Every structure is written in structure tokens, then in C-alpha cells.
């Protein structure tokens, strides 16, 4: 079933998530405060908007509250990451995924109601290690 997503923060991680979801046939609203990041993804998602996602009014105007899933992919700005995750949950978005920078950050995100917390570098490291073992790359 076609779902509606918003991806906030178009760094490497957010961009990759947004493009992949679109390629899989879903509707994706991509948001970043940086105009250049928005320009780069414009042709690969349903809608790309330049905006500061800390502004609740902006999120409301964009109809974010009616979407199925939100992905908060902001990295360095912990305050923005936490505040936006909290706002999205308060707006009633059923499933909010947030990217954490550390275990402590992840704990805060869990407390404020994030439904899934991801640690992209660590998660990728674990996946690669498991893949290497499963595919028996040592048997060459
Ligand atoms: P990656 O590792 O995925 O490349 P990162 O962890 O280094 O990214 P940042 O570059 O800090 O993360 O943030 C990702 C994006 O989030 C940036 O393009 C930045 O402009 C955007 N961003 C940061 N704060 C906001 C905000 N308040 N509203 C919208 N976008 C924001």
C-alpha cells in the first residue's frame, strides 16, 4: 500500500531514505532548511521544500500531521532533532523514526516518544559484519 512520508534533514542519510522510499512507489515530502540540499533532491521525491522544521506552523501548513511516517534525519543539531521529534509525536504522526548521535541521545528520543531510533553508522556496521559472515566471503 502506498504510504505518505516526510523526511526532515537531507544529509546523506535523509537523502538516501527519501530517494529509496520514492523509488519504492511511496509519496515523500522532503524538507531541509538548506536550499541547496532541497535543489539536489527535487527531481527524485514527490515534493521538496526549503523550511526550518522547528517552526510548528510551517509543518502544519505543509500538512505534515496527516502523513503516516516521519523520519527525523538531522544530525549535528541535537536540539532541533529532539524538538522536531517531540512536535511530530504531539501532532499525532503514528510512526516517527529519529536518527540518534549517541546512546544518551537515543534514550532521550525514546522518552519523548520516538517509535524507532536508528544509529546509521552502527547499524550499517552490524549489517555488514553479519553479511560478511552469512555470505561466507572468507571461502574464496
Ligand atoms: P549525514 O551523516 O546524513 O550526511 P549529518 O548527520 O551530518 O548528516 P547534518 O548535516 O547535521 O547531519 O544534518 C542533516 C541535514 O539536516 C542538513 O542538510 C541540515 O541542513 C538539515 N537540518 C538541520 N537542522 C534543520 C532544521 N531545523 N530544519 C530542517 N532541516 C534541518
Automatic annotation (TrEMBL):
Transmembrane segments: none annotated. Residues 2-118 form the RCK N-terminal domain. This is TrkA family potassium uptake protein. It comes from Desulfosporosinus nitroreducens. The chain holds residues 1 to 140 of 216 of the full protein.
